[in-house]
Write a structure and sequence with these properties.
It contains 9 helices and 11 strands. By secondary structure, it is α+β, with helices and mostly antiparallel strands. It has 3 domains: about 120 residues, no CATH class; about 35 residues, no CATH class; about 50 residues, no CATH class. Helix 4 crosses helix 6. The two termini are about 30 Å apart.
């Protein structure tokens, strides 16, 4: 299989996740990006999500190129929602709302339906897989309760806080941060950074975080509302016992599109 670090294959896009990591790690956890609430009632429901589906008129205003293209039935999303809370506010005031609470409150069947609803909400699914009915259930509940949605394809501030705790728990202080295209890697020393400074070091396109000894890896990809934690089973047991992340362990068959096979 080769070395996933040398070969720049730190995310398993195809095939069984555990098989992809088998030369390095024997345990992989799917960690769900958390929803959250702030201590204020959000009156504009559009601000509960970073992504927004643009009308044709809005899209023409934002994207000049569209004026030159033939009109088509296309969905265009904007991520310029500056009313979505900034990291600093989430850091200070954000309270995690677990997926299990969203599932229960919205009437969705489980994590798989919730993941499908989220992916539908950002236009990430082929039309034959899209589920507007699930998205509507989700939005009705989160709108009513003023619950903010996670932003896909990035370690959100609340996840970064939990990741830092995980590194500290396992005694890992030298951390490497690598961007999506493996163009830049920086090293940080947890002992020299405050909690917020560590979170601030990780940019929106930093997809791979791992200890200098490579004994634990956090990895995400651009369209997902979850990330992967890969390590050995003893360290994984310790992380799970400390309840830092919501999610589930991969079995031998779990793939990136786990929502279609989750039982």
């Amino acid at each position: 299989m080769g070395d996933i670090f040398d070969d720049e294959r730190l995310y398993p896009y195809d095939g069984a996740i555990k098989k992809h990591f088998e030369n390095h790690y024997d345990s992989v956890f799917i960690a769900l990006l958390p929803f959250f609430q702030l201590d204020r009632k959000e009156t504009d429901k559009a601000n509960l999500k970073k992504a927004k589906l643009l009308s044709h008129e809005e899209a023409l205003k934002e994207i000049d190129l569209l004026k030159k293209l033939p009109q088509a039935n296309r969905e265009i999303y904007s991520y310029d929602n500056d009313r979505y809370p900034a990291d600093e506010e989430i850091f200070r005031k954000g309270k995690v709302t677990p997926w299990k609470n969203i599932v229960k409150g919205s009437g969705l069947a489980g994590y798989a339906e919730l993941n499908t609803a989220l992916r539908t909400s950002i236009g990430a699914l082929n039309r034959k897989f899209t589920r507007p009915d699930l998205m509507e259930k989700l939005n009705n509940f989160t709108d009513h309760e003023s619950i903010y949605h996670p932003t896909e394809g990035a370690f959100g501030i609340l996840s970064k806080i939990a990741i830092r705790k995980a590194f500290k728990l396992l005694g890992k202080n030298q951390i490497l941060i690598t961007d999506e295209f493996y163009e830049q890697t920086s090293t940080v020393d947890l002992d020299r950074l405050t909690e917020y400074e560590f979170c601030d070091e990780i940019g929106g396109k930093d997809y791979y975080l791992y200890s200098a000894d490579k004994e634990i890896l956090f990895t995400i990809e651009w369209d997902s509302f979850f990330f992967l934690i890969a390590t050995d089973h003893k360290k994984m047991d310790k992380l799970i016992a400390n309840d830092l992340f919501e999610g589930f362990l991969c079995n031998d068959k779990t793939e990136h599109y786990w929502e279609y096979t989750l039982e």
